[in-house]
Amino acid sequence: MRMYPSIQRRTAMFSRRxxxxxxxxxxxxxxxxxxxxxxxxxxxxxxxxTPGETVSYSTIHSIGIEWGISGDANHNATVTVHYRAPxxxxxxxxxxxxxxxxxxxxxxxxxxxxxxxxDTTYKVRLxxxxxxxxxxxxxxxxxxxxxxxTLPTGGRRFHVVPGxxxxxGSAKKPFQGIAAAQAVARPGDTFFVHAGSYxxxxxxxxxxxxxxxxxxxxxxxxxxxxxxxxxxxxxxxxVEGLTVRDQAFATFSLDCPSDVVVRRNFFYDNHYNIYLQRxxxxxxxxxxxxxxxxxxxxxxxxxEGIELNGSxxxxxxxxxxxxxxxxxxxxxxxxxxxxxxxIFGNDIFDTSDDGIETDEGQTxxxxxxxxxxxxxxxxxxxxxxxxxxxxxxxxxxxxxxxxINKYRQWxxxxxxxxxxxxxxxxTTGGAxxxxxxxxxxxxxxSVNGGQIWWGFGTFDWRTDLDHDGFDWGDSTRPFFFxxxxxxxLESFSAGTGQEAxxxxxxxxxxxPTMDVPGDSPTTVPPQYLTLAAxxxxxxAGAILPNINDGFRGSAPDLGAYEAGRRLPTYGxxxxxxxxxxxxxxxxD
Length: 588
Description:
By secondary structure, the protein is mostly beta strands. It has a domain at 7-11 and 30-144: Immunoglobulins (Immunoglobulin-like). The strands form eight sheets. It has a 14-stranded parallel β-sheet with strand order 10-9-11-14-17-20-23-26-29-32-35-38-40-43. An eleven-stranded parallel β-sheet has the order 18-21-24-27-30-33-36-39-41-44-47, with no helix packed on it.
C-alpha cells in the first residue's frame, strides 16, 4: 500500500482533479460510499494505525523518508528515527518523522535525517508507536547518501580559445571554439577554456557518464566570457569558472539533463541566470556568484538567480543541492524545488521579491544555514507548498517589507534555530501558517518594537511552538490570534497552550553588534548576529537530536549560532575543492 505518490503520479493527480464536469455524480457516489464505510467502522479501529510502504531517497548530506499508513484518525501516532553507518558504534537519534495528512502526501509520516557524510551507507531504524494500537510498527532501511561530485582523474586534457574551428587541443594549438572541442569530447575529458569572448551561445550537448564528467573549466588566465550565454544539453557535465553578462537568460537547460555540476561561475547583469527550463535531477549548483539586473527597490517579481523550475515535473526537479552561492539584484534568489532538495550556505541579499521561493516544493525540502538580507517581499515563500515537511534551520534573516514567511497555501514545516529580524512588525497577517509548524529555538526580533505574530486559524494537532525567544520592544500587542490580543508570553501561552518555555529577550543586550540601518529596501551590511555573554537566549533551547548535537553549555542556544563555535561560511567557499567541512548547519 503506497501512500506517497511520486512526482509523476502527483502530476497525474492534478490532471485527474482538473478534468471538468464529466463525473460529479460519480464523485458524490464515492464520497457517500466513503462516509457509509467510515460510519460502519468503530472509532477505535479508525484511530488504530496500520503501517504501509516506506520510500527513501537521499542527497549528498541528507536522507528523506516517507511512510504511508492507514488509520490514526486522531493523529496521535509517532515515529522515532535512529541511524548509524555500519560499523560506527551505537545508533544515533534523529528528529521524529512528521505526521502528515493532506492531499499531496496522503496519510502518513515523512521527514529527514540531515548533516550526514557524503557517499556513506546508513542503516535507518523507524519505530512507530500509537496509543490506540497497531501492528508491525518497525522498519529498518539501508540508504546511501550521494557522493560529492569530483573531477575526473586520468582523463584527457585539452585547451580551448575563441574561434570558429581548427586546432588539436594542445597548449600550442588549442581548439578554436567550443564546437571544435565538443567534436572530440568523451567522458573524463577536461577542456580548459582560456580567456576571451565566446559567441554563438553553445550548448554543452555531449554527455559524460556517471562518475566521469566532461568538464568545461575556465583556464584561470582571465575572463572566459560567453557573450551570448550557453545551454546545458547533456547529463554528467561539469561547468566551472565561466562568465556570462547582459543576457535575458544567461543559461538554459534542454532535454532534461541530470547530474550536472555548475560551480564557481560568474553571472553579471543577466535577468535570469541559472535557469533549469527543462532540467533533470541531481544537479550540484555551488559557489557561483550572481549579480542580476533587477533593482531591489523596484519590488519586481521577474528575474531569477537560480530557478529550479519544480513545476516542470515531467523532467523532475528532485535531488538537487544548491549551496554556497552569492546572489543579489534578482527578484527571487532561489526558486521552486521539487522533492528531496538541499539549499544551504547561500548568501542572498538585496532581492526585489523573495530570498528563497520554495513555491511548489514537495516533500523533504531542506533550507539551512543561509543568510538572507533585504529580500524585499519575503524571506521564504509557501505559494503553494505541495507536500511536507519542509525544513528551515539556522538561517539568518534580516528585513522584509512583508512577512518573513509568505503563507498562501501551506502545510507542515519544521522551523528550528533561525534568527529572524524585522524593522517593525514581523508579520502583516501571515502568522496563521505557523499553526501547522513545529517551531523550536528561534529568535524573533523587532528592531524598533513591533508585533511578532498576527493571524487567524485553528490551534490543533499540527501546532507545536515552544522554546523560542522574542523581542517586541515596546509594542503592547506582541501576539494576536483569532480576535484576541496577547500582551505577554504568559498570556499567549495560557490562551493557546503554546510557547510554555518561550522567553523574552532584548536585542540591544543580546546582539549589541546588530547593524540594521533602516527598513527594507535599505541595504543591510553583511554580519553575524551572534549572542553576547549574559544573554538569556544562551543555554535556553531544547535539545534536538541530529540538529544541535554537540552544543556548548547546559543546553543549546537560541538562534542561528551556538556561542563559542566557529562561524559558518556564507556564499562561495574559499577552498579550491569547493567542499566545505562544515555543511552540518551547526557552526563548529
